[in-house]
């Protein structure tokens, strides 16, 4: 995995200030939603041309080799680094570090990981050996994270295609088969966008005019190949006059809401207000939320749904305050093999995510002498500085300047920490599941 000199994403444009509580909120309409809702408020449409793209297949500009390109979500929103992954291990690292994250994006990432192995790492001309390698690559990438079923689904899609493609063609057609699985992986990204747009269309009409919606984590363009699931509904509904404003849960501990969702919404110009997770109850109690829209990492046969930790609390609150709670996800997130949520494997992450916080940034040297000193200090590989109190800073060179990645402890050393990445919302707390195939009662998918 290597940084490339792709253009950086634009900073979000200035947007109108988030509505104050006095301006809040339109109560949900009791009227059934009119098709193509005519609440024609004078507001510009969402600027979807500014929506970030998450993952795509390209050629690494530094050496002309095929690469899986992805926006590094660990550094957003302040840095828009593009990673060029040229190996299976590179994509695997990106997934495990959450540079690439979000269930549908992981499905595409898994397929592209297998395709990049085939393009850049496979050697030889024996078709059977190639298929063995495809199987091994698919198995390895499927295990990179446990909870989002789309990851193993994506790996299985491309593995199955490789087998059937070769079975249907002469055994000496390996070069064509290799090209075909690259096309297949690229098509999965295109299909994901089409699926998300269908989720958006299916979900938008459930919202009343000028709704204030609340969302958790990032189920937006960044969690998919493009457009988003829960935010896909928001983007579609906003242009129909059904969404006026979005409450964004910051989503501890890694702040996918504060860092990614808020940035996405600001990029497209949809009014949003950031809240800490523990403010959601207060916002709902005041009648300021008309609907909750979340994504999903795995939906069981009975409708129990795993999503980012904190989703369960929202669903319980939604029931208390009579707010519809919608799960928005592609059909590929449904795991019919699991009867209920107690069987979903829940990812446990590094306790350091709770024990401190990370900060990343860039710096420039104030003068030539300082630049020389910093260049000597960072050397070729960059250098980690261990500070008192357990804080750490990693400094490296990039372009004409320097980057830093820091972790600062803000809890007692050796404190015990429990850090599950997901929780399971029982089906009975979910009003409906919105997929590209339509709107379903949980358990009736
Ligand atoms: O740990 P993450 O950031 O991969 O968790 C992501 C979520 O929980 C999302 O809500 C879900 O994957 C849907 S993304 C469209």
Describe it.
The chain is of the alpha/beta class and 445 residues long. It has 3 domains: 55-197, translation initiation factor eif-2b, domain 1 (Four Helix Bundle (Hemerythrin (Met), subunit A), Up-down Bundle), CATH 1.20.120; 199-343 and 422-444, 3-Layer(aba) Sandwich (Rossmann fold); 352-409, no CATH class. It is 33% helix and 20% strand. It has 11 helices and 19 strands. The strands form 4 sheets. A 7-stranded mixed sheet has the order 7-6-5-8-11-18-19. It has a 4-stranded antiparallel sheet with strand order 1-4-3-2, covered by helices on one side. It has a 4-stranded mixed sheet with strand order 12-9-10-17, with helices on one face. The protein is globular, with a radius of gyration of 23 Å. Residues 1-40 have low confidence and may be disordered. The structure holds 5-S-methyl-1-O-phosphono-5-thio-D-ribulose. Residues 98, 101-104, 148, 217, 219, 223-224, 229, 256, 295-297, 307-308, 421 line the site of 5-S-methyl-1-O-phosphono-5-thio-D-ribulose. 5-S-methyl-1-O-phosphono-5-thio-D-ribulose is lined by residues 98, 101-104, 148, 217, 219, 223-224, 229, 256, 295-297, 307-308, 421.
